[in-house]
Design a protein that fits this description.
507 residues; globular; 16 helices; alpha/beta
Length: 507
């Protein structure tokens, strides 16, 4: 029985205190029966190919728990959806930075001018255009201008170490980069790069182009952005996301959150971090107001608290390490608090739960377009519950042979559906390793996340941890191997081991 349990995952059921012992016994009897039936009809089958799952449970795991199919604007790009909104609310405020703001019409026209200029530089669909500047109105103009030109943007945080910036530039092959006079110093040594300065070049060059709407350039299958994440080989890797991936995310989240033009968003995440995609477009594609603030304010809980009240923010999406420190704000306009990027912290619910504010835990890797599952938290006792898959997304929990494991048994979490990235830029082998053929849907792919999880009986997923050394620190995905590799390059270091450790306050 011990061997049987080890091979088929029943040890997890036997040790799970949340499951009634009688149910475990019943399940064991059922599993043995199914196993013996399979052995009887296929006695030459290898042990790894046998299953203890009944047809009914298999149907539940593959179909019932993944019944997420809905129609969405798969024929629309981000640009199409934005311009639809501009036509509805041209004079409404779209984005605010400190005392300055742009209406939807002004944001549309300025990005049209930039797009025309980029097209004269030869930008075409799937061309990568870098963008490196501080938080500002120009950042939004730049991103939309790149998308309208047909290109895909590569966000580069000006606070990154120069070595990391240099690697991203080399790997992406960017030949045109949007920046400002201040941030352009990072690229002064690059002779092969054309810098477009959105401050000093605007009046003399970019602003001379026409304001009117452009003809459609990109298609839903073309790339929208490439965001770099930490890599175990010592270098970051670029994840390629298409317009159609983002369209599904925004359609799903608009409905789930019930976003309206009356909402006010805070652009909390760095624009080189994929959570910014949800925060930015969910606002702009629904007629809401997006507030961009300097980074130093976001690092101060008291500063954010004042901002939330003064700007009447209704939608706050941030990492749990920040949200746990945010006290309940009496009289705030917040409708919803979204925790993402790391394991949900119960302190968030203690502060905000049951106070007319929706508290939602989101989960999803960059490779599946920001959010793949979500759970509206109703109690603080299950911080690892990441909920159910979002629209047009499938979750599979499998063993090393890519076969589904029973409910409550731990396996690797794999994700399929409309959010799946094209793959990793310039890394065919890694793409082939992580984006594999979907064994449950012919002609489709799934992404092997490297996360361990299990289905709960109610159709939600419990996150268990990682099967490798990857960690999350303040919402950022970090491969410890990347740091070890960097340390190993130092001449006096023979060996290194990097650990992520918590202090007494959970930091």
């Amino acid at each position: 029985v011990d061997d049987f349990g080890d091979d088929f995952g029943l040890t997890a059921k036997l040790s799970d205190r949340s499951i009634d012992p009688a149910a475990v016994v019943a399940y064991m009897q059922q599993a043995l029966t199914v196993l013996l039936q399979h052995m009887d009809t296929a006695s030459t089958t290898a042990l790894s190919e046998l299953s203890i799952i009944t047809e009914q449970e298999n149907h539940q795991l593959l179909e019932v728990f993944n019944a997420t199919e809905v129609s969405y604007p798969k024929d629309k790009t981000i640009v199409d959806l934005f311009q639809q909104q501009v036509s509805k609310t041209p004079d409404a405020i779209a984005v605010v930075y400190q005392e300055a703001s742009l209406s939807y019409k002004a944001l549309d026209q300025r990005s049209n001018q930039l797009a025309r200029y980029l097209i004269t530089k030869g930008i075409q669909p799937d061309d990568l255009v870098g963008i490196c500047l501080d938080r500002s109105l120009e950042l939004l103009v730049g991103i939309l201008g790149i998308l309208k030109s047909g290109g895909a943007y590569v966000p580069i945080d000006p606070e990154y170490p120069k070595a990391r910036i240099d690697y991203m530039m080399e790997d992406s092959g960017v030949k045109v980069l949007l920046s400002t006079t201040e941030c352009s110093a990072f690229f002064s040594d690059r002779d092969d790069l054309e810098l477009v300065l959105l401050d000093s070049d605007w009046n003399s060059i970019i602003g001379k182009h026409a304001l009117r709407k452009l003809k459609r350039v990109a298609t839903p299958n073309d790339l929208a952005y490439v965001i770099y994440t930490s890599g175990s080989t010592g270098q970051p890797k670029g994840v390629m996301i298409a317009h159609k991936n983002v369209s599904n995310l925004l359609y799903s989240q608009t409905n789930y959150f019930q976003i309206t033009a009356k909402d006010r968003f805070l652009a909390f995440s760095s624009f080189s971090f994929d959570a910014s995609v949800e925060q930015m477009y969910l606002s702009l594609l629904n007629g809401a107001i997006l507030h961009i603030v300097p980074k130093d304010i976001l690092l101060d809980v008291q500063g954010v608290t004042k901002l939330l009240v003064d700007k009447k923010i209704t939608h706050l999406h941030a990492v749990p390490s920040f949200l746990r420190e945010l006290p309940f704000i009496k009289g705030s306009s917040l409708k919803r608090i979204i925790s993402g990027g790391d394991v949900f912290d119960s302190e968030i619910f203690k502060n905000w739960g049951n106070k007319s504010v929706r508290v939602i835990n989101e989960f999803g890797p960059t490779e599946t377009t920001v959010t793949s599952s979500q759970n509206e938290v109703k109690k603080a006792t299950i911080p690892h519950n990441i909920g159910q898959p979002i629209a047009n997304t499938q979750i599979y929990i499998v063993n090393p042979d890519n076969k589904v494991v029973p409910t409550a048994v731990v396996g690797e979490l794999c994700i399929g559906g409309a959010g799946l990235a094209r793959g990793y830029l310039n890394q065919k082998a890694l793409t082939k390793e992580r984006f594999v053929a979907n064994p449950f849907k012919k002609g489709e792919r799934i992404y092997k996340t490297g996360d361990l999880a299990r289905w709960l009986p109610d159709g939600t997923v419990e996150f268990i941890g990682r099967k490798d050394t990857q960690v999350k620190i303040r919402g950022y995905r970090i491969e410890l191997g990347e740091i070890e590799n960097a340390l190993s390059l130092l001449p006096k270091v023979q060996q290194s081991c990097v650990l992520a450790r918590e202090d007494g306050h959970g930091s």
